[in-house]
Amino acid sequence: MDIPVSEQAVKRLEELKAALPAKGRVLIIPHDYPDPDALASAAAAHLLLDKHFGLHSRIVFTGMVSRAENREMLRHFRYKWQLLGQVRATKRRVPCIYVDTKPRAGNVTMPSFGKPVAVFDHHPLTRRNPLGGVFADIRAGAGASVTILHEYLVAAGIAVPKWLAAVMAYGIATETL
């Protein structure tokens, strides 16, 4: 099934490209103690970075994934993830993409060596976490952050694998009830 691609989505994809490094590693960071929307968003961002931009990425987060359904979801992930505390700090600043959260939002641990380059979130922006110089796609009416990232996958012409489609659908369902 072909999904129509909006000009706005293509424009956003180009703006994201300008914010990303040309090569190297990118960290994808959901909020601490990630829920299904955060995990699905991180996986969708990983797929986008790999297939469209040719970038290596790693999904990292802080806090336990304690709910049984969230742990089960991680068991089915085909992408590697890691606790932030296990990532070796570098002297060089590493580009970071935040999903389902924003830098300084109060619910995410930011690595000291990280450099925020992009944010995808469905929670409204507050004055206490300005995002100057960072690509930000924040849509409070989206319902779930993974919905926003799905639009990027469509604009990039990337087919979503079945396992990830299921994870994304579950993320949307749990976020929107």
Explain what the structure shows.
There is one protein chain. The chain is an alpha/beta fold. The protein has 5 helices and 6 strands, in the order αβαβαββββαα. It has helices spanning 7-19, 36-51, 68-75, 145-155, 162-176; strands spanning 25-30, 56-61, 81-83, 94-99, 114-121, 135-138. A 6-stranded parallel β-sheet has the order 3-2-1-4-5-6. Helix 3 links the parallel strand 2 and strand 3. Helix 2 (36-51) runs antiparallel to helix 5. The protein is globular, with a radius of gyration of 15 Å.
List the helices and strands and how they pair.
Layout (H helix, E strand, L loop, with lengths): L6 H13 L5 E6 L5 H16 L4 E6 L6 H8 L5 E3 L10 E6 L14 E8 L13 E4 L6 H11 L6 H15 L1
Parallel strand pairs: 1-2, 1-4, 2-3, 4-5, 5-6
Helix pairs in contact: 2-4, 2-5
CA-based shape? globular
**What oligomerization state is this entry in?**
single chain
Q: Strand order, main sheet: write it out.
A: 3-2-1-4-5-6
Largest sheet: 6 strands, parallel
DSSP helix fraction:
25-40%
Number of helices: 5
Order of helical and strand elements = HEHEHEEEEHH
- Tell me, rounded to a whole number, the average pLDDT: 91
Measured distance between first and last alpha carbons: 26 Å
- Rg computed from alpha carbons, rounded to a whole number of angstroms: 15 Å
Strand content: 15-25%
Q: Would you tell me the structural class of the helices and strands?
A: alpha/beta
